[in-house]
Write a structure and sequence with these properties.
- It comes from Paenibacillus lignilyticus.
- This is DUF1761 domain-containing protein.
- By secondary structure, this protein is mainly α.
- It has one domain.
- Helices cover 80% and strands 0% of the residues.
- Helix 1 crosses helix 3 and helix 3 packs across helix 5.
C-alpha cells in the first residue's frame, strides 16, 4: 500500500526541519530584503494568537508536503521498472524532485509577482527556499531507510 511504506519519522523530522529552514532562509539569510519586499513597512504586529495559528497551519502543511513528497518518491522509484529508467539513481531522483518543485511551487511563487505585485526578489527567495527544501526532503527520504 502506498502510505504503509512511508517513513513517518522522516515525515516528522522533515516537517520540523522545513520550519527551521524557512526561518533561516526568510528571517536570517534574506531577512531585510525579503521582509521589506514581502511585507512593506509594518504598521502593526500580529498578535501572539495569530502568530501561533500561522505556525500551526504551516507545520501541518509541512507534514502534508513531506507525506506527498514521500509518496511521489516511492512512485518515481517504482516507475523505473515500468518505464525503463533507473529508479535507484539519486541523480535521477534529484531531477525528478526539481521537476516536482518547479511544477508545484512556481505557480504560487510567481503568482506573488503577477497577482500580488511583490518583487522578483520575493519570487527568487521563495523559489530558492522551495528548491532547497525539496532537496532536503529528497536526501532525508532517500538515505533514511
Amino acid at each position: 500500500m502506498l502510505f504503509s511504506d512511508i517513513n513517518y519519522w522522516a515525515v516528522l523530522v522533515t516537517g520540523i526541519l522545513s520550519l527551521a529552514l524557512g526561518f533561516l532562509w526568510m528571517a536570517v539569510i534574506w531577512k531585510k530584503p525579503y521582509q521589506r519586499d514581502m511585507y512593506g513597512s509594518p504598521t502593526s504586529q500580529p498578535s501572539n494568537a495569530v502568530k501561533m495559528q500561522s505556525f500551526i497551519i504551516y507545520i501541518l502543511v509541512s507534514f502534508l508536503t513531506s507525506i506527498a513528497f514521500a509518496v511521489c518518491l516511492q512512485l518515481w522509484k517504482a516507475g523505473g521498472q515500468a518505464f525503463d529508467y533507473d529508479g535507484d539513481s539519486l541523480a535521477g531522483a534529484f531531477w525528478f524532485t526539481m521537476l516536482l518543485a518547479a511544477g508545484y511551487t512556481l505557480p504560487f511563487t510567481v503568482g506573488k509577482k503577477v497577482w500580488q505585485f511583490k518583487s522578483w526578489l520575493v519570487v527568487a527567495v521563495d523559489t530558492s527556499y522551495e528548491a532547497v527544501r525539496f532537496t532536503m526532503l529528497l536526501l532525508i527520504f532517500w538515505f533514511w531507510n
